[in-house]
Design brief:
The complex is a heterodimer of chains A (380) and B (387). By secondary structure, chain A is mostly helical. In chain A, helix 2 crosses helix 14, helix 7 runs antiparallel to helix 8 and helix 8 packs across helix 9. Chain A starts with a helix and ends in a 5-residue tail after the last helix. Chain A has 16 helices and no strands. Chain A is globular, with a radius of gyration of 21 Å. Chain A has one domain. Chain B is an alpha+beta fold and 387 residues long. Chain B folds into two domains: 174 residues, no CATH class; 116 residues, Cytochrome Bc1 Complex, Chain D, domain 2, CATH 1.10.760.10. Helices cover 46% and strands 6% of the residues of chain B. Chain B is built from 14 helices and four strands. A four-stranded antiparallel sheet of chain B has the order 2-3-1-4, covered by helices on one side. Chain B is elongated, with a radius of gyration of 44 Å. Classes of the chains: A mainly alpha (380), B alpha+beta (387). At the A-B interface, helix 10 of A face loops of B.
């Protein structure tokens, strides 16, 4: 265990050196584009996991109780949003179109000036992050303490808080998506964009949950979790893949059909020229591959299949964010060693966080009164 | 009357666990056709009964694919092939716009196949009864008991007493022997009743529809843009002093693109008007078409002036092949087509200027065809090659 930590720490250190080198060798815009990409990715996985935790409370589903500790532990990433977000704030004057000189002469930006200005933008980020961290302690911290106290009333109060969390998460995630991706090219409009990011966040959180569950199960730490539990996770991943496809297509179709210059330029940058292969990869890889790979009942019970699809879905979430963000750097495919360095740093640091999080609390929420019923769950 | 044929033997079990343990025992006893009836879905029952995988899935998939292809094909064929419509400057085959209807086609056909397939394949829809529904055990099965049925195989002997014994040995009680349901062929009276009922339903529906139309004839279902505060051509309107909705254009107005003929005789027209069209196959083809439509009826298709209408029409149409008309300039013929000549009416209202000029080009070709110089004939004889 310590040996592997040492390897991860070394990789993270190399990655960190690479990340710093990007700033000085490739310029600030390239650095900030990548930083925002991983900031959003981190928030997606963390908040998607919190969403899964709250989803279980809000629906009162019993089958997922033995699995709940996995998204609870993964959502420990929420705390790491704080430093990443603070650093990301320094990108505001560099890559956001509404901070550039001359923005006060562009009509759509002037109309949005009441929303897109430094004090309000920073205040929104502060409120959102504070809410997420607070929710992490409320939803996950109390659930962890329940392992020891075995106090059943905690479950009831978690079920009461979850709907409130859901509504505020929807609002905060929408604001986050508008601020940190849409407003990079602030002239663009898309009301559905918050839902789009949400769909990506839940698919990537489900994929992470599946991977961690299978990892722990192979280590023998979740012996009571059966193939039927995995089947349900696979079903959710399948469902949210369709949801993502539906939302992504809804956004595309409306703007493609209306063909308004102030909207369609955004898609034109991302569907033609060097970004066209990325767009096709996204269309096929983010929707058709998991859709077809998870369609049959057998596939959702196949552990190997689930692992590969989950890894692929996480990779596609990266491709999605790359597709959304990298065109701000200008025409061309901005893919090279800087992206590799960032991936190395954030993945190894993320694994270190997850590794530590895996020892938090018990492997299953042993204080939850529904745990035994959840362990008895099996499909028809 | 002989004993009714046996359908199978039914027994009740107190719990789902008893049911599941009984099934292997009965299988070991050689009973292969076992069916279970439970108040709620029981885990592991499908496996215990060795139920084959449902065919409904593949059926739903095929029909869903059919619905998707059908909807996409319909949208594509109507919009891109049969009646091409240009919408918002997009290509005729704007396939992203067909995707929602494709999705809905797939879902529509898939769900209807699933629903109807369940009713027909598994509930055997035209068959309205099931022996178990008439059994004594049915109320218990619907409440809190679990039943197993040993069905009489079609191809091997079946002893109901032995089956009852086997069921009791496996833990069942309240054993009953279910008779084969009697299927009666519907007689003439049944058919008469059914047809009369359908006819009566049609009559009531038709009468209702007619009544509704008679009672509410003037209620339009939708008034989108039917009623507009606008004046149509020829409509009266008291707003203007002359009570007419139509206005006269101001004096001296000319239509866009209009080129009035200012010369007052064919001779002066021949001097001042010049054919703007090139001599091309397309112009000649257009000229032939318009000539055959408007001119040939009097002047003959070759322009000889022998009318198809016979002598009923008093005047003699001009012979376009005459040496006089061969020698007049193009503008002369154009002027005559436009303004008329003697009894020939003016055609300016029917034939556009370009078409008139095309007719002139064609008349020239007709004239040359009937009086070809020798080199034209030679040129034609050697296949159109210049010497």
């Amino acid at each position: 265990m310590t040996r592997k930590s040492w390897i991860l720490q070394t990789l993270a250190a190399i990655g960190a050196a690479g990340v710093v080198a990007v700033y000085f060798l490739e310029g600030a815009p390239r650095f900030w584009a990548n930083w925002i990409l991983w900031f959003v990715f981190l928030a997606c996985v963390a908040l998607g996991s919190l969403f899964l935790v709250a989803l279980q409370h809000i629906t009162g589903s019993i089958w997922s109780v033995p699995l709940r500790r996995v998204p609870e532990r993964v959502s420990a990433l929420t705390l790491w949003i704080i430093p990443v977000a603070i650093i990301a704030l320094f990108s505001l004057p560099v890559v956001f179109s509404w901070t550039q000189p001359g923005a006060d002469k562009i009509t759509p930006l002037v109309l949005k000036a009441a929303w897109l200005n430094y004090p309000f933008f920073i205040a929104r980020l502060a409120v959102c992050v504070a809410f997420w961290v607070m929710s992490y302690y409320l939803l996950v911290g109390r659930s962890m303490r329940q392992d020891i106290t075995k106090n059943a009333s905690v479950t009831v109060s978690l079920q009461r808080y979850s709907p409130v969390f859901m509504i505020l998460l929807a609002l905060s995630l929408t604001s986050f998506a508008f601020d940190w991706i849409s407003s990079l090219e602030a002239a663009w409009y898309s009301d559905i964009f918050g839902v789009y990011l949400f769909a990506g966040a839940v698919t990537s959180a489900l994929a992470t949950t599946l991977l961690v569950t299978v990892f722990l199960r192979r280590r023998g730490r979740l012996p009571a979790v059966t193939g039927d539990h995995l089947y349900n996770l696979g079903g959710l991943l399948f469902g949210f893949t369709i949801f993502w496809g539906y939302i992504a297509f809804s956004q595309y179709l409306l703007q493609w059909y209306a063909d308004l210059p102030e909207e369609v330029f955004w898609f034109q940058q991302r569907t033609s020229g060097p970004m066209k292969p990325v767009f096709m990869l996204l269309l096929i890889g983010h929707f058709f591959v998991p859709f077809l790979a998870l369609m049959t009942r057998k596939a959702k019970k196949n552990e190997r299949r689930l692992v590969w699809v989950s890894i692929w879905v996480l990779f596609m979430e990266f491709v999605d964010l790359f597709w959304l963000i990298s065109p701000i750097l200008g025409r061309g495919l901005h893919l090279g060693w800087p992206e590799l360095a960032f991936a190395l740093f954030f993945l190894s640091a993320g694994f270190l966080v997850l590794k530590r999080a895996m020892s938090a609390g018990e492997d299953m929420p042993v204080g939850d009164p529904f745990l035994n019923a959840g362990l008895r769950f099996h499909l028809q | 009357m002989s004993e009714p044929a046996v359908y199978g033997v039914l027994a009740l079990f107190p719990s789902a666990e008893n049911l599941l343990t009984a099934i292997p025992k009965l299988k070991a006893g050689g009973y292969s056709e076992i069916d279970a009836y439970t108040p709620y879905p029981v885990h592991g029952l499908d496996e215990a009964l060795d139920l084959p995988k449902s065919k409904l899935g593949i059926l739903v998939f095929l029909m869903g694919a059919f619905g998707a292809l059908g909807a996409f094909g319909l949208a594509w064929w109507t919009n891109a092939i049969n009646y091409p419509l240009l919408m918002g400057g997009k290509p005729y085959n704007s396939w992203p716009a067909w995707i929602p209807v494709t999705l809905e086609g797939a879902i529509f056909f898939g769900t209807f196949t699933a629903g109807l397939g369940m009713l027909i394949l598994f509930n055997k829809l035209p068959y309205f009864g099931h022996p178990v529904l008439g059994s004594e055990a049915m109320p218990d099965i619907m409440r809190d008991k679990f039943a197993l049925l040993l069905k009489k195989p079609t191809d091997s002997p079946f002893d109901p007493d032995a089956a009852a014994k086997a069921l009791r040995a496996a833990g069942g009680d309240a054993v009953e022997v279910l008779p084969e349901p009697i299927h009666e062929k519907p007689g003439a009276a049944w058919w008469a009743r059914t047809i009369a009922a359908i006819a009566a339903a049609c009559l009531v529906a038709a009468a209702g529809t007619v009544g509704a139309i008679k009672i509410f004839p003037t209620i339009p279902p939708m008034v989108n843009m039917e009623n507009q505060p606008r004046l149509d051509p020829e409509m009266p309107d008291s707003f203007f002093a002359d009570d007419r909705g139509m206005r006269m254009p101001p004096d001296g107005t000319v239509p866009r693109g209009d080129m009035p003929i200012l010369s007052d005789s064919p001779q002066s027209g021949g001097r001042s008007l010049i054919n703007p069209l090139p001599i091309s196959a397309r112009v000649l083809e257009r000229g032939r078409h318009m000539f055959d439509l408007h001119c040939a009826v009097c002047h003959d298709r070759l322009g000889t002036g022998k009318p198809w209408l016979g002598s009923g029409y008093q005047a003699q149409p001009a012979d376009l092949q005459s040496s006089t008309l061969r020698s007049v300039p193009d503008g002369y013929i154009y002027w005559v087509i436009s303004q008329g000549y003697g009894p020939m009416p003016a055609h300016a209202a029917d034939i556009s200027p370009d078409d008139r000029w095309a007719i002139v080009r064609y008349i020239r070709a007709l004239q040359r065809s009937q009086d070809a110089p020798e080199q034209d004939v030679r040129w034609h004889a050697i296949g159109g090659r210049k010497e």
